[in-house]
Amino acid sequence: MRGEKFVNLLKATRATRVLTVLTIILIPAAYANNFPRILALFLTVPALIYFAFSIYNAYRDNDYVLPNYFPIIIVILLTTALIISFSNKIILIATCLWIVLGLIYHTIARRIILGDAMVAGITHLALPITISSILVGLKLELIIFLCFASYLLGISIGPTTNLKDIQEDKKRKYKTLVNSIKTPRLTAAIFLSFSFLIISIIYGVLNATQIWLLFFPFILLSFTIRQICKNKIKQALIYLRFYLINSMIILIWSITSNLTIIIISSGILLIQLIIIIKGLKWNTSM
To answer: For the CA atoms of the chain, what is the radius of gyration?
Structure first.
């Protein structure tokens, strides 16, 4: 039983979901063609905070039977993130914002229509890309653009991520866009379609040399929307995450020659490929 609870604790971290955050952090570094040591340190902070709040979310939503010591693990993860963040004032500010926004997400935002998407748009996309842009020294105008564009990207994918738990969210008295309207799948698909426009604009602004490679994310987006229309939401979410990471990594490869960035992004893509293959096999066999 103890072993099972420990495995549940590991599952509750939802570790693979942080890959999108780690990938978007690499985009400013790729544009600057520079991977400073402070950025390597920064990559660990959102991961630790995400793991901590994912465990809390799993406990709050009764997703897993967790060991009695799970609060200690949460404290250790958040404390470690804070300790690391003291190495840099900008990272410290970001860490404090992540923790505060995490608390808002789990207490207030999920009871407001689109509230979860608005907060997640900051924590998962806008904040990490903004801090990364500052750390690698991008111009203010470009930082503002990347912050705003990535935030809109987060808003556009939010409704799709909520499709899986419409009934459960209603029972928990969470308010999302898709559990408050009569056409949740159509609305989610329309919102998601705008994500490709946003990504295309980011490609153009960052002078991606191989814009034709957007063809691959477009195909993944089409698969995602098709699964939504067929009400196969689990498969749609698998494709969605791969679509986001794929579009970001293709952009990264198009604008950098930095070997460290290419290796890290390639590792993230490989992990995501394994996840999508295993996930689709599992869902097909059920």
So the answer is: 18
Reduced to 3 states (helix: H, G, I; strand: E, B; else coil), residue 201 is helix
The conformation of residue 177, written as its DSSP 8-state character, comes to S
Identify the burial level of 59 via C-beta atoms within 10 angstroms of its C-beta, where 0-12 means exposed, 13-18 middle and 19 or more buried. Answer: middle
For the segment(s) 2-285, the CATH number from 1.10.3210, 1.10.10, 3.30.450, 1.10.600 is 1.10.600
Maximum Cα–Cα distance across the chain: 54
What is the spatial distance between Cα 175 and Cα 173, in angstroms, rounded to a whole number? 6
Buried/exposed code over 165-195 (b: 16+ C-beta within 10 A; e: otherwise): bbeebeeeebbbbbbeeeebbebbbebbeeb
Q: Where are the domains of the chain?
A: 2-285
Q: pLDDT by residue (tens digit) across 92-146?
A: 999 999 989 988 987 888 888 888 899 999 999 999 999 999 999 999 999 999 9
CA distance 37 to 25: 13
